Amino acid sequence: MASTTDLRDLLQLLREPTLAALADETVRDYVDWGQLSSRPLPPGLDINETWELLGLIRHFGATTFPISTLDGRPFWYGMTREGTHCLQYIKHHCRTDSVLHETMQEREGHRFLIRSRIQEAVATCQLDGVDISYGRAGRMLQEGRAPRTAAERLVLNSYEMLRELESQVPDSFSPDLVTSLHERVTYGVDVREIVRVPKKSNLAGTLTPAYMSEMACERGIVNDICDYANGTTGDPSEPAVIKSHMILSSMGYWQPLPDFNETVARHLLRLFAVKRDYPVLSYLPTSLTSLKWFDGTLRPGVARFPSLVRREVVPGSIDGTADILTHLELTTAAIGGLLSYISRTRKRDAALQTALDSQERLNYRQRSVVARALTRPEAEFRIRPHQTTHHVVYQTARTDLLELVERGYLVQRQRGKAFVFVPALDLQKLVEADTLE
To answer: Largest CB tally within 10 Å, which of 2, 207, 252, 349?
Structure first.
């Protein structure tokens, strides 16, 4: 038991102005090691002692993850003001009743949904160490062609799984569900043919021991993760956005599956988000934003930390406050990026529509086709429906569409015995170039 003298010394230390200011700031905004290194320290304490004391202060109000690390250390985090602001921003834009989700579900917004899904599917595989370029994989998905390599097959599987989420929502999280997701991810994939690069799944870059998968099986980690996802364990008041990240992080740390743990984990994150009424998180390209953060290409100021370094705060535990804050910042950045893209595209559409209306080289029927193709890149046009819509003879309808093919605006494809016309991948650039002539 501490003596009266020890208690008085402790109270005097806590009242010391330098420490009081640091403690207030670290609880509200998190003082990292770099910041602490440049600050005046409380009298009688060195930087290591101050660092540990500040960590202990924050630890009192922290949330602890129910699954400890391999060596038995608990993972905990505190919520800063910036983190709280990010949570509010995410909630505002990602719930079912949000304007963003409603926009993405509209026919006009379907193109934004497709773009986000393509970005997310490709970046997910890249984060999992699959060596594949966005250009090649993106074109495959946009063109709807069959995959030619094992890596492309993996990307296609990931993309298709994004469209299958709703069918899995009624299922509780279970080891069987995790196994089925892994089988779906790897369906038709010869993993021996995939070229690998280093994975980028752990924010702090912690290396996972080769024997981790075996240990995960022995400890029943998948069961523990599923219990946490189902709400059987953990803090019931923990925000869903953070819980989804912890599901992702624990899968990436323990590596319980034979391969592609991060890809399966991100699908678990999306499924959890939909279950908890955050549907936008199921297609938001957060993987792409994370990839940019890892590569150092993210715009400065988007995330507070350009990288994370583990430095023990409270002995025998891991402080994940910076991890959680970075995840929230990256999610917020992904939302902002999507909103900006939608706004820019709509302004560009309006300008292109004005230009199309003034184009004498296209008749009004062709202008309506191009306008629809610009807003719905997945659209298909056929001669008979075009004829019926505009009350023209078959030959006129056919000529309309074939002339658009000649201009490069549409691409002609065969579906069985019939021909269909789809928007060119670079339609927007072609229209912009033609309107400037």
So the answer is: 252
Q: Considering the entire predicted model, what is its pTM?
A: 0.84
- Note whether 121 and 260 are same-domain residues: yes
Q: For position 404, which CATH number holds?
A: 1.10.10.10
Which position has the higher pLDDT, 368 or 222?
222
* Same-domain pairing of 190 and 229: yes
d(CA 242, CA 97): 20
Same domain, 56 and 72: no
Nearest Cα to 132, choosing from 113, 117, 114, 154? 154
Residue 436's pLDDT is 59
- Select from 60, 86, 102 the last residue of a domain: 60
> Do the domain assignments include residue 93?
yes
User: Domain total for the chain?
Assistant: 3
> For 184-242, what is each residue's pLDDT tens digit?
999 999 999 999 998 887 665 565 667 777 888 888 999 999 999 999 999 999 999 99
**Residue 147 lies inside a defined structural domain of this protein:** yes
Q: In which element (H, E) is residue 183 found? A: helix 175-185
409, amino acid identity = Y
Q: Residues 70, 30: one domain? A: no
Q: Which amino acid is at 213?
A: S
User: Tell me, what DSSP letter sits at residue 196?
Assistant: B
Only one residue has tokens 């929502």, namely 169
Say if residues 271 and 165 touch (Cβ distance below 8 Å). Answer: yes
CA 372 vs CA 143, 367, 409: distances in Å: 18, 9, 12
Reported as type and span, the H/E element at residue 319 is strand 318-319
First to last CA, the chain: 86
Tell me, yes or no, whether 40 and 98 share the same domain. no
What are the residues whose beta carbons fall under 8 Å from the beta carbon of 419, sequence distance 6 or more? 382, 383, 412, 413
- Output the furthest CA–CA distance in the chain (Å, rounded): 100
Residue pLDDT, tens place only, 372-381:
888 777 788 9
Identify the pLDDT of residue 5. Answer: 73
Mean pLDDT of all residues in 410-422:
88
Domain assignment present for residue 359? The answer is no
The predicted structure's pLDDT at residue 277: 96
Q: Give yes or no: residues 311 and 335 share one domain.
A: yes
- Nearest CA-CA partner of 126 in 355, 349, 271, 295: 295
Domain encompassing residue 46: 4-60
Nearest CA to 284 among 104, 89, 99?
A: 104
Spatial separation of the C-alpha atoms in residues 378 and 118, rounded to whole Å: 13
